[in-house]
Amino acid sequence: MSTPTIQTKADELLRLHLSPDILSVVNVWDAISAKVIADIPETRALATASHSIAALFGYDDGEKIPVDLMIDMVGRIAASTSLPVSADLEAGYGYPGETVRKAIGVGIVGANLEDQMKPFDEAVSAVAQVVAAGQAEGIDFVLNARTDAFLRAGDRPHEEVIADAIARGRAFLEAGAACVFVPGKLDVVTVERLVAGIGVQRVSVIGIPGSLAPATFEKLGVARISYGPWSQRVALTALADLAVTLYGNGSLPDNARALN
Question: Cβ contacts of residue 105 below 8 Å, gap of 6+?
Answer without folding.
Answer: 75, 137
